UniProtKB/TrEMBL annotation:
One of its GO terms (biological process) is putrescine biosynthetic process from arginine, via agmatine. This is Related to agmatinase. Gene3D superfamilies: Ureohydrolase domain. Keywords: Hydrolase, Metal-binding, Signal. It comes from Hanseniaspora guilliermondii. GO terms for molecular function: agmatinase activity; metal ion binding. Pfam families: Arginase. Residues 1-17 form the signal peptide.
Amino acid sequence: MRLSILYTLAFAYSVSAHIFNEKYHAYKDPSDFSTLETEEASLNDLWGSFWAYQGVQSFAHLPYQQCLELDPSSSEPLPFDIAVIGVPFDTAVSYRPGTRFGPQGIRSASMRQDKWRGFNYRAGINPFDDWAEVIDCGDIPITPMDNTLALKQMQLAYKQLFKRKAKNSQVPKYLSLGGDHSILLPVLQGLYETYGEITVIHFDSHLDTWAPDKYPSFWSSNTSEFTHGSMLWLAHKYGLIAQENNMHVGLRTRISGNGWDDFEEDNEVGFKRIFADELIDKEGFQGVINKILKTIPKDKPIYISVDIDVLDPSAAPGTGTMEVGGMTSRELIYILRKLKGLNIIGADVVEVSPPFDNADITVTAGAQIAYELMTLMVEAGPVTQKFIESNKNIGISESGEDLRLSALDRIIKSERDYQLDMMNI
């Protein structure tokens, strides 16, 4: 009897609660369709809502347009401030391929995110519904057959993307979904042409500042020097990144030879290092965060690159070059949240390889990390012309070489000259 009374009260409460929003939640006789045919219901009322697993697979159900097919000087049809761009390229890997499927894997895992349920409780904002117009720009169409051509495609794509007009900002910000980590080089090239030298925060288990000769082989070419472990070395060589105060976070890789040569070369490329083991040292997380914030400049353009293998294989099995002893996804997100206040002008999530994933563990982590990176970009605010002008350098090296010329064009030209020389032999 008592249970019956409780049930009746609960039912009565639920019905009365629905009445407060009669348009959507009032109880209706399921056999009566008359209420759906009134003039009050728009087409969007009827068909604009969907469940998480429904709809076109854009990132977090964001509005979608193929941005590269639009005139960069036009703001139509969808002007934007922050965009997701997929970079499905994986033919510069040194171990397991498969990250060409990363952008679609991350998008698939992001389907439970959307504007209507996007409030980030860690940040206190909804990154999909703040000052920035956020969209999904689709993928860059990249050949898997020829890395020289792939480099050219990526370079021209980012050059065009950064020429687009933004809605509430001077230039758009892009969140790139990889792809292997080599895509960072053309991203940095595009950013350099807008901002000048970029300071990089690099979350990874590997250095990725290896000189090309650290991949020993009798067989080589200029294009073969471009790998997912040499792109930061190349970025430094061509003056795209800051000469100092770049930061690795989460390192635990083995290094070459019988000594510390790799670390010494890393110093020359302008990086400082935080190892995964430091998270469990005496100073722990706060010590790591303090080290990052003490190193990274507050008045410079900052780019965050997240290789998913910074996570432990238990948290991200779907990647090409796993290293045991890494972070959990919670630990990475905690560190990212502490970077609020930096001038984040772009970011990426790379090395997500769905063919090696289990139960969508890695793609789900990648989608959540992308969401946190987008939150940071929103928190950093619009890019102003004053900020661009205050940071852009002239770009002339000590040798007199104009670094504003395309670093990738140099690589492509060198490869073309190399191949012509080979043909003349």
